[in-house]
What we know:
Number of helices: 13
Order of helices and strands: HHEHEHEHEEHEEEHHHEEHHEHEHEEEE
CATH class of the largest domain: Alpha Beta
Number of domains: 2
CATH topology of the largest domain: Spore Coat Polysaccharide Biosynthesis Protein SpsA, Chain A
Bound molecules: uridine-diphosphate-N-acetylglucosamine, manganese (II) ion
Oligomer: single chain
Strand content: 15-25%
Amino acid sequence: MRNQVFVALACICSFLWVTIIFILSKDRAPPQVLLDPQSLESRLKNVEEQLSRQIEDNKKLLENITQVRHKLEVKLAEERREKVSVSGADESNYEGKNDNVIPVLLFACNRVSVNKALDELISYRPSKEKYPIIVSQDCGHKETANVIAGYGDQIISIKQPDLSEPQVPAKEKKFRGYFKIARHYGWALNQTFNTMGYKQVIIVEDDLEVSPDFYQYFSATLPILREDKSLWCVSAWNDNGKAGLIDENAADLLYRTDFFPGLGWMITKDLWDELSVKWARSYWDDWMREPVQRKNRACIRPEISRTKTFGKIGVSNGLFFDKHLKFIVLNSKNITFMDKDLSYLLKDNYDKRYIEDVYKTDMLNIQEIRQGFRPELKEVRLTYRNREDFRRYSKQLGIMDDFKSGVPRMAYRGIVSFMYKGRRVYLAPGANWSGYDPKW
Ligand code: UD1
Ligand code: MN
């Protein structure tokens, strides 16, 4: 009872106290605001500076958080791995593997700079379990083998055993390297799919850099590749991916292409089962582009490349590198493809929407496009009627002008999409297009 009286008294006192304070402060004049423009300006400046300092601080904070999160992820992955080895799983036992594991198969030969490719692949890799890196070495080059061995159990290392000189027709002697590459590809892909039992693979070479979202890109497109039987690969490469020809604000944009781009690409075991029985003896990439292999299937490719080659010195001459390859832009943004709806890439959706969109655009001629005529049009179409048209226009606009088995680089149903002077150009055949002509 005494307690209740005490509490009531305390309440009344507090109420009175608050009321008095309120009345006193209500009648007080507001602080004088100096309204002369100069002091106002300097105060605003002050606020502005404070705000930008705050923004900078926030940025730093965000960076720190990202780093800590990354470290945490690495640590967790390591802990998981330890648990697996404690529970007695044998790494050489390839049975019972998770079907969603996506190994990265890297081809090496005699370049010690393979460490550049490997360091990047490892640093962006979100999980060693989901993305084991298999390094397959050809050529028996000691120094390169040492570099690879230095990576210990961060990678799986294998060696192509047949170092004999391949049988090469006399007039192709100087292309001997391409026979060795094809042999190496055949062997290592058999290892990956048949010996190790993986269900898909990302293929890279020892002179490729990758983008931060490399793994995300392939992970997110794998379900589409599996589902859509008219697709046979996902590639990280845009042959027309030079600055000025790409929309740098469209890093998340993906396409279908009838051209096999290579240079960082993913396939499934089903495709390997089909190709392995007749695998190419040389020039494996052009072989894949032949109609009998491609069978009208397409690959997914990005607006901005997720790989970039630094291999000026290699089996082909460095001229192509200096004239073209070194200008391809490597994407630097981290696009979270996993959060995106990629169903627009499925054939039925794509053919309806994309083709319609392209043929809806206004047509300009080559002079009008080069002169930036009608700048209000953000997308325009340029029609080519024959091979000569295509060659001439692509030379003038700066895109690749060659064909493989009649398919222009990056074309889908004959259409090549690229940027020119800040707007989208579709170099497209007539709407009645009926297929590629391998004689082009
Ligand atoms: C070009 C292609 C490459 C393709 C090759 C075969 C470009 C930029 N590159 O090779 O994607 O695979 O043609 O048609 O278009 N290698 C071996 N054994 C050898 C020599 C090389 O395994 O005896 C490996 C290399 O380590 C590398 C790959 O084959 O991973 C390609 O060799 P490289 O020297 O880079 O030749 P490119 O001219 O780039
Ligand atoms: Mn190369």
